[in-house]
Each structure stands twice: as structure tokens, then as C-alpha cells.
Amino acid sequence: MSVFSGMSRPMKAAGVVLIGVAIIAAVIGGVSALSGDGSNEAGPSGTPSSPGTSTGSQPPSGTTSTPPKTTTSPSSPTPPSTTSPAPGQPTPGQPGQPGDQQTSNKWVTVRVFNNSTIKGLADRAAEDFRGSGWNVNEVSNYSQGVIPTTTAFYRPGTDEEAAAKQLAQEFGIKAEPRFPGIESATPGVIVIVTKEYESGHKGS
Predict the structure, then answer these.
(1) What is the pLDDT of the chain when averaged over all its residues?
(2) Domains of the chain, with CATH numbers?
(3) Which of 70, 91, 102, 121 is the most exposed place for a label (fewest CB within 10 A)?
């Protein structure tokens, strides 16, 4: 038995129309439910996007690039030069070198006296000493006694001692402390030359 039985033709037509409208409405509602209206779209991470929130490209977490560290080793300081002087050469800045000591002794005053009968022997000896750089400031005669051999006399414990020994070594004569007759004489090395100086010294 049809639901439209007993209804008039106009009523049947109206019922059919209503049913059709209901079916169409149901179909439209189903389609709308399936497709959605786009107002609740999900972002890349599955979280709904809020208005005004940019979902543009952001760097993925954990991928921030860090510039590589450049390790520079500190430059090692240049060691000071350790060049040694050539063998036999004095090291600069070291006092007391033999050559310096010998030169320094020559500032000591030297006085030359002739104790021979050879005229001008003291002058010749003085010229020899001066030619070697010695500081000769007096030339005279010694007549207070006889000296056995040419000798450079000095006061012990003074600069005269080193100077007299150096001069004696340089010219092949003797070096001795002052004897009583000249102990109180003017300071300086006193060289008393005798006759053997003329024949025995190359500078004569």
C-alpha cells in the first residue's frame, strides 16, 4: 500500500515535491559535510592555522647553521739569535777581555830614567813606549845608584802593578816593586833603563 493512497492528486504531487526537496537537501548537506568550507584547514604540522599567523617557510628545528670555528694557532715567538762569535773573537758586552785589559793599563803614567853612560838612552826607550801606546810623561836620568838591569818599578796593590808587568812583558824587561830609594816618588810606573836595553831591545 503506497503512502500516497487515499490522497488526492494535488496532495500526492505536493508530497512528491517535499520528498524530492528533502532528498536534495540531504544530498547537499552530505556534500557540504564532506568537502568543508575551508575555514578549519590544518597547517603543515596538523595544527589549525589562526588568522594572521604566517605559515610561511621557517627553518626546521635543529637545522640552524653555525659558522665553522676557525682555530688559529698563536704564532710562536722567534727565538733570539744565538749566533756565537767566531773562535778567538771576544763576545760583545763582556768586560775583562784580555785585549781590553791590556789597553786600559796603558793610561797609567810612565816615567823613564837613564841609568847608563849612553846619552839619550832614556829618550829612545820613551819613544818605544809611546809608540806602543803607553802614557810617558817624563824622561830624565837616575844617578842615585846603579841598577843591574832595565826594570819597571811599581807600588804593589795599585794600577801601577798591572801596568808595569804588562810593559815588562811587552818589552822584555823586568817588573819589580819599588825599592826604598824611590818608594815616595811621584805616582806612576818608574822605568830605569840600563845599557843592555840598547843592545837587547829590538826597538833601540
Answers:
(1) 73
(2) 104-200 (3.30.70.2390)
(3) 70
